[in-house]
Records
---
Amino acid sequence: MSKDAVTTVPQRIRTVLRDAGWWARDYVYAIRAQARALLGRDAADLLAEGEGTPVVLLPGIYETWRFLEPLARALHERGHPVHVVTELGGNRRPIAESAGRVAALLFSRGLNDVVLVAHSKGGLIGKHVMAFSPAGERVRAMVAVATPFGGSRYSRLMPTPSLRAFASGDATMKALAASGAVNTRIVSVFGPFDPHIPEGSELAGARNVVLAGGGHFRVLADPRVIAEVIRVAE
């Protein structure tokens, strides 16, 4: 065995242990977020007041807006009206259908110069609005956290159609990948390791921000995320 091979083994072990630690903390965060979704009582409409740039929340699959509640409250405290698309429910519907519901909210509430704040699947929904809907003209930019813009190879192993829809060969995913013109209005934020998206979330033409810590859920709590939203909105 060469000297280089010997020296890389400890490094690989450290990387595996690091990723495992991020993964464990990731699911602790996810469990707490789901508990917040079950126990939360404050109405989303209370966040929709403010004079700043309007923000629309787009949670990930199987998530409600409460997954993004800490981020939403921090933005609301800075004077930004934060809008929730309650029609998304638990976000199980196809991307195009969900994008239609987001577009309908932008029109019905007369929202303009909007910043979308999205997690995971929410980023795909947001890009669909920006690329294919007339409502896309109402969107200034989107900050997408841990979004599978290039798909996830794990999706083909998933038991439900809503999860298998993230395969890179899916028709909607291919259409989104081909619509690169809107990428310049997207900030893609992600960690160096994502247990759900081995391909990563880097998006050509977008502003790509790599966080210090990894994970798929816990990265939402990284201060850099809200800093990027504030940079775009203010």
Note: The radius of gyration is 18 Å.
---
Amino acid sequence: MTADLIPELPDAADDAALAFASLAVRAGQSRSAEGEHSEAIYPTSSYVFDSAAQAAARFAGEEPGNIYSRFTNPTVRMFEQRLAALEGGEACVATSSGMAAVLTACMGLLKQGDHVVCSRDVFGNTTALLNNFLARFGVATTYVPLSDTAAWRAALRPETKVLYLETPSNPLMELADIRELADIAHGHGALLVVDNCFCTPAQQQPLALGADVVVHSATKYIDGQGRCVGGAVVGSKALIEKDIFTFLRNAGPTMSPFNAWVFLKGLETLPLRMRAHSAAALELAQWLAVHPAVARVNYPGLETHPQHALARRQQSGFGGVLSFELEGGRAAAWSVIDAVRMISITGNLGDTKSTITHPATTTHGKLSAEQKAAAGITEGLIRVSVGLEDVTDIRRDLARGLDALAR
């Protein structure tokens, strides 16, 4: 595909002058001849050409324009351009899910014989993708502790092509120094890929810190209300349009126009929501930190967090997710989870509704006992995604189970 196949939006040049909150509302919008104020949804599989010659030119990449909604759709394109603007990237590919985004990035950037260095506490399905599928095609992976930069450097091989990480990590909220890892990757001729799901571009911009590619599960904070599943890959035009888009065009892990429209609406309120999530999460973390039933709280906004200074340096907010440890193992964790009446027991996060889960038996349940131990996923660990309810009600709901343990 040529870079000219996807048409530039008429006002794209003006986006650079807008502040983040304005980009979240305005970037990427292209109005039709109807003059709609809200972005339009284009539920079409194909497009009509003016002539056979125009169709040939579109398919050959000689003329920009829509061809087929597996890889060119106006609504999806608006979402892609808005998210790229928010991340400070040049291009974006939207996918059908967050895991489809991870797969698309890997398939676009890796080939047989390549090596990946990956943080050991990435999402469990990412580990399964690397170990159970990419390994079949000759891509090897070495796992290292997220914050141990010496371990990252030591794991490099001549064939290392990608360093992959999530920061903050799920569910322990550990951080990586993005700028330092970018220097390590680039010094070796490799690429740094960062999953920015927990902070979103509203609170962290990995590309500005030296990362090459950003991966998103749009299902989480980008949607913000638990309605749709989707993902995205953001980076430079050279990487996205040559390697990433080519895989999506041929393999088809495509975002639907309706989901793209929902995510566009989510992006409009992203800065406001992330500030509210973070403020509530910090207040809840401070309360949990002094509760007698809680052994440890994992939240980078706490001054006791070992990487609090790094969080303040590379993030503009601390996020809406925290986890905490109970001494009583699975029985204690399940008793607290089962005692809640308002908080939703679900594996999703980034919702306006607070959610609670037991990582060892849900999101990370497919990991071996050894893998869980290495990643710090214990039976007494609980993860909470703090929503937009009144924090007093969230605290009261958790207190039902925690106070019973403390008696």
Note: The mean pLDDT is 94.
